[in-house]
User: Fold this.
Amino acid sequence: MIFTQLLVVITSVMLWWFIKPKHTFGKITLVVAVCIVSNLLLIYGLTEPLYERFHVYLVVGILQGFMLYTALIVAIIWLVYHQLFKHSFSPKRLRVVAVVIYIGIVSLAVFNAYSPVVHHITVTTNKLLNKPMTIALASDTHLGRWFGNRQLNKLASLIALQHPDVVMLAGDIMNDTTYYYDKNNMHEQLSKLHAPLGVYAVLGNHDYSGNQVKIANAVADAGINVIDNKSVLLDDSVWLVGRSDETDPMRPKAAKLLTQVDTNKPVIFLEHSPTAMNEISALPVDLHLSGHTHGGQIFPMTILIHWLQPLVHGAKQMDGTEFLVTSGYGFGAVPFRLGTRSEIWIIKLQSTS
Assistant:
């Protein structure tokens, strides 16, 4: 509620400055209209149990928030211009600049969300590995209203171009339900993910939303092995251990899962969240893969999230374990990324010997 009223103030001020209503009636109408529309969207967002309407409200809210970014940038441009040339922009020119900046911010945020980049990293282990293993990692597809068949087809194509030995998905495959997955027949596109050693996935917090059984079945039907709290030996040389999300009340300790494997071989630990770094680093795990953070997704959360997570994005070695956190291939409730970008990681695991 407070967030909505703050957006009402921001939007009203920006539109007031842009439109410049001359009469009292116009000024009152502008503020009342923004207030009514914003609060009706809030009510609309709260009247549906699956949160899909709430996501629509969030999209509009983020677009309103981008107005604040526009205002700050325009103010900085005006100040710099005024200091350099000792005179100000004309009001009309400044409004044109504001429109261009706003369109630029929205366009960049959409581009970052839907235009993935492929990162490469090499990870070494001192355990015996007969030949290097190439792993494709993606996470947080959040299949739903804003993300579906076209993006899945692109994911399969980009991964196929890298020729990985194995593909791993680090959770939040669906955005809370399989409703849009089923409605838009995403099964056909998800089934395109292939690799010689298989495709493996764990579930994330949005998968553990009360629909985890249905989501796991849908993922398995697409030919993907769901390995929550299971382990599998890849190519008779590397152990892959999967763990359920921390929202799972039955989630086991990592040490218990490692009793299922031979830790003299390289061990890859796959789970959704990177919050268990201290727990994992004390164990004979060579590579820990996760997602969940979205890298903060939208500025300023891209900065603030560093206070909440031990590793927000990228790789970090800790006590002999290499940790890698992807910001995700998709996004959360809103189809925007500002300060982050959709991504896939290609990891080459090799032995030092």
Observations:
- The mean pLDDT is 93.
- The two ends are 59 Å apart (CA to CA).
- The first strand starts at residue 117 and ends at 125.
- The CA atoms of residues 228 and 237 lie 20 Å apart.
